[in-house]
From TrEMBL:
Protein family: Belongs to the ParB family.
Protein name: ParB/RepB/Spo0J family partition protein
Origin species: Nonomuraea guangzhouensis
Top-level taxon in the UniProt lineage: Bacteria
Keywords: Chromosome partition, Coiled coil, DNA-binding
Residue ranges occupied by any ParB-like N-terminal domain in the UniProt entry: 50-140
Entry-linked SMART domains: ParB (SM00470)
Region Disordered, annotated ranges: 245-264
Residue ranges that the Swiss-Prot or TrEMBL entry lists as coiled coil: 137-171
Length: 320
């Protein structure tokens, strides 16, 4: 079996101290810099990070979810083989070297299919989900993560700890649109994610790649970014032509022929701020279009609710 890819990003594992455990609480002293200020993540009472063998993990008998989509599991397993497990599972010790799953059974099952062993985990002693969530969000602001690790941490906080986009934005001092656009990086093919994690493709490049519909096109253009040292602007120009095979020069030559109107960029920026996501406003020869991007179904519902709250309210009343 080929060597498993590990260590490219561990999501919340990068934000939580590892052992040794002090007084059974998971509290450890942070590393201090020259000024005496902590340089690493702050200790989180009641939790610590470690890698655990698959055989030492048992499922939670109180898990309400008992049906897992086989195709989605296979997709996640393939991603784990390529990139590694970005989001650690959450477990609690039950003694005898065994751990019981609290969150992440789907990830645990996918790791079994991918034969990734051991796997990253947060070992939690406290039962206070809100306390652990808030501490991890606070550490997001302190720890320097690559874009993919940051996206994985955001996604895990949303999924496992029931955090909201607003909570993340307020706690880490980022805009909601930044949270949304960073989360979209997890939609890239594993091969492109690897390049983002390695730093050969920047987050700006990656966001431009997301405008391509085909994963194959995204992979081709990511390879060109590395081989030709393309700038983010050049990639955006290539993507605007709808093909990773187009040359940046051709894009620049064709761009002046596109009709433009004063204030379109300003209008797009205002709409982006209002809807808290990326909005494009294009004006063609005979008609124009507005493109509003979204990351998840929940994000789409939020945007529609902002655009037409009465329509959303009527739809919910009809469903009820």
């Amino acid at each position: 079996m080929s060597q498993q890819r590990r260590g490219l990003g561990k999501g919340l594992g990068a934000l939580i101290p590892t052992g040794p455990i002090v007084d059974g609480t998971g509290t450890v002293a942070p590393a201090n810099g020259a000024t005496g200020e902590p340089t690493g993540p702050r200790p989180i009472a009641g939790a610590y990070f470690r890698e655990i063998a698959l055989s030492a993990i048992i499922p939670n008998p109180r898990q309400p979810r008992d049906v897992f989509d086989d195709d989605r599991l296979k997709e996640l397993s393939a991603s784990i083989r390529e990139v590694g497990l970005l989001q650690p599972i959450v477990v609690r010790s039950v003694g005898g070297g065994q751990y019981e799953l609290i969150m992440g059974e789907r990830r645990w099952r996918a790791c079994q299919l991918a034969e990734l062993d051991p796997i990253p985990a947060i070992v939690r002693n406290t039962q206070d989900d809100e306390l652990l969530r808030d501490a991890l969000i606070e550490n997001l602001q302190r720890e320097q993560l690559n874009a993919l690790e940051e996206a994985a941490a955001y996604q895990q906080l949303l999924d496992d700890f029931r955090a909201t986009h607003e909570q993340l934005a307020q706690k880490v001092g980022r805009s909601r649109s930044h949270i949304t656009n960073t989360l979209r990086l997890l939609n890239l093919p594993p091969e492109v994610q690897l390049r983002v994690a390695a730093g050969t493709v920047s987050a700006g490049h990656a966001r431009a790649l997301l405008s391509l519909d085909s994963p194959e096109e995204q992979i081709k253009l990511a390879k060109r970014i590395v081989a030709e040292l393309l700038s983010v602007r050049a990639v955006e120009e290539i993507v605007s032509l709808g093909s990773s095979k187009a040359a940046p020069k051709a894009a620049r030559e064709r761009q002046p022929n596109k009709p433009s109107a004063p204030g379109l960029v300003h209008l797009a920026d205002r709409l982006s701020d209002h809807f808290e996501t990326k909005v494009k406003v294009d004006l063609g020869r005979r008609k124009g279009r507005i493109v509003v991007e979204f990351a998840t179904i929940d994000d789409l519902e939020r945007i529609i609710g902002t655009m037409a709250p009465e329509a959303v309210r009527a739809m919910k009343e009809t469903e009820d």
